[in-house]
Amino acid sequence: MDNKKRTYILLTGSVVWAIIIFIFCTMPPGDIPRIRIPHMDKIVHFGFFFIQSVWLSLLFSFQTKSRYVRIILFSTLLAFVYGGLIEILQDRFFNRTGDVYDLIADLSGGFTGAITYPAILRLYDMIFKRNR
């Protein structure tokens, strides 16, 4: 796959995933299905931002050829900023409550996604290079 196509796919995936996060995080509380697992909302926040950070880390890795540490810092910072923005918007404009623990889950998911993206990249390479 050429670099332009890969960049388009990763950028599109990242933007679409950011929109999905925004939609789910700003839905009215009554529209969200209730699952009786303790701290399920924190698990969901972690998962949302884990996936977002993997998308971004892969994009930065292919586009910038930056060092691993720089990619981790940038992806984690974006998770923190986007998660914080959503928490502020929930509190001020939507019928939701902004929660610092949601932001911690966002940040944790973003960091975990950023540090695991090399393993995900190796797995991708193993799967798709074997099938050639």
Question: How is this structure best described in words?
Answer:
The protein has 132 residues and is an all-alpha fold. Helices cover 80% and strands 0% of the residues. It contains 4 helices and no strands. Helix 1 (3-26) packs antiparallel against helix 2, helix 2 (40-64) crosses helix 3 (68-93) and helix 3 (68-93) crosses helix 4.
Write the layout of secondary structure elements.
Layout lengths: L2 H24 L13 H25 L3 H26 L6 H31 L2
Helix percentage: over 70%
Strand count: 0
How does the overall form come out from the CA principal axes? elongated
Low-pLDDT segments, ≥5 res = none
* Biggest sheet features: none
Counting helices, strands and paired strands, the structural category is mainly alpha
Q: Average pLDDT value? A: 86
Feature tags:
single chain, 132 residues, mainly alpha, 4 helices, elongated
Summed up:
It contains four helices and no strands.
